[in-house]
Specification:
It is a single chain. By secondary structure, the chain is α+β, with helices and mostly antiparallel strands. The protein has one domain: Alpha-Beta Plaits. Helices cover 32% and strands 11% of the residues. A three-stranded mixed β-sheet has the order 8-1-9. A two-stranded antiparallel ribbon has the order 2-3. α1 crosses α7 and α1 runs antiparallel to α8. The longest helix is centred in the last third of the chain and has 28 residues. Bound molecules: iron/sulfur cluster (3 copies). The site of one iron/sulfur cluster has 14 residues, from α4.
């Protein structure tokens, strides 16, 4: 409970700082976005939502290759699609089902499925937000996590615009952050496990620049099927997961991000902290004190428990 309280307090603090920083025009304050060409050779995946049938085989493959605990509900059980899900400790990728065509009888309520996982952003907010460098953007593209450096502040969870990093709340001894690694243990010799397992070949693994060309070619030849833009090409400054969509992203619950890199927004938060004369170190000391207080409360309640 104390850890949860800490997260709640940290979220409130983070939210307050974010709110303070969202002054019109301030989003570009850092003004040093990367050239998209820098990411052309990054490993990436092009996902075609029109091919996805929502079978969840990719979820199973991800769970197996990462040796994660089995979830309570089996991967074969498609009833989970009735509810919108987020990634968690046992499922680094989830499939959600949408009915974006509403009550248009001609479309027969055709569902659209959407695969979600870490987007491996070009300029990741989680990396900018992590105060100890436990998250990093590799030159190859994947955004990786180093549990030995993590102090459990969970600031990455607050910063990620796609709500991806998850904390192992149920792990009593050494909880860590969990998220997709783009199968760094497999690529490039093998495909990411989800890509390899997909029976629909809904995903193509390759270099970001090549996949963008491929995606735009597919869109040009099928303008009646796809949206004109590739989701992830510019979204949040660009991502390594690129989506071909049959409907606008907002109809699939995707956040419609600005083209400003999410990482720049995180930096703006830090700049705003400076601007309002709150040195970041004060924020970090605050976070440390919150953790210390949580830990003392933990010890106290354990002690009281022993006395009872
Ligand atoms: S900001 Fe979120 S989606 Fe982007 S790399 Fe970090 S965890 Fe993944
Ligand atoms: S929880 Fe760990 S990875 Fe996330 S911001 Fe804090 S130190 Fe970094
Ligand atoms: S395995 Fe392929 S078709 Fe099945 S849910 Fe995953 S992406 Fe969709």
């Amino acid at each position: 409970m104390d850890r949860r309280k800490f997260l709640k307090n940290a979220a409130v603090t983070g939210g307050a700082v974010i709110a303070g920083s969202m002054i019109p025009g301030e989003a570009h304050a850092s003004g040093h976005g990367h050239d998209p060409a820098e990411f052309e050779n990054n490993y990436a995946v092009l996902y075609d939502a029109t091919k996805c049938i929502g079978c969840r085989i990719c979820e199973l493959a991800c769970n197996m290759t990462n040796d994660l605990d089995k979830p309570d509900i089996d991967f074969k059980d498609l009833r989970v699609l009735a509810k919108k899900r987020r990634t968690d400790e046992t499922t680094h990728t989830v499939i959600n089902r949408f009915y974006p065509y509403g009550d248009d009888a001609r479309m027969n309520h055709k569902p659209v499925f959407l695969k979600q996982q870490c987007m491996h952003c070009n300029e990741p907010a989680c990396v900018s937000a992590c105060i100890v460098g436990a998250l990093r953007k590799t030159p190859e593209g994947p955004v990786l996590y180093d549990e030995s450096a993590c102090i459990g502040c969970r600031y990455c969870m607050i910063a990620c615009p796609f709500q991806i990093p998850v904390f192992e709340f149920d792990e009593p001894l050494f909880p860590v952050i969990q998220k997709c690694t783009l199968c760094i243990h497999r690529i490039p010799d093998k495909l990411p496990a989800c890509v390899e397992a997909c029976p629909q070949e809904a995903m193509t693994f390759g270099r970001r620049g090549d996949l963008l060309k491929l995606g735009h070619g597919i869109i040009e030849q099928n303008t009646d099927i796809y949206e004109t833009e590739i989701y992830g090409e510019h979204t949040a400054g660009g991502t390594s997961w690129l989506y071909l969509l049959p409907v606008p992203p907002v109809k699939l619950g995707l956040l419609v991000q600005s083209d400003v890199p999410a990482g720049q927004l995180s930096e703006t938060i830090q700049h705003s902290v400076f601007k309002y004369f709150i040195p970041p170190v004060a924020l970090y000391i605050f976070l440390f004190l919150m953790m210390f207080r949580s830990s003392r409360m933990d010890n106290k309640s354990n002690h009281e428990g022993e006395e009872e």
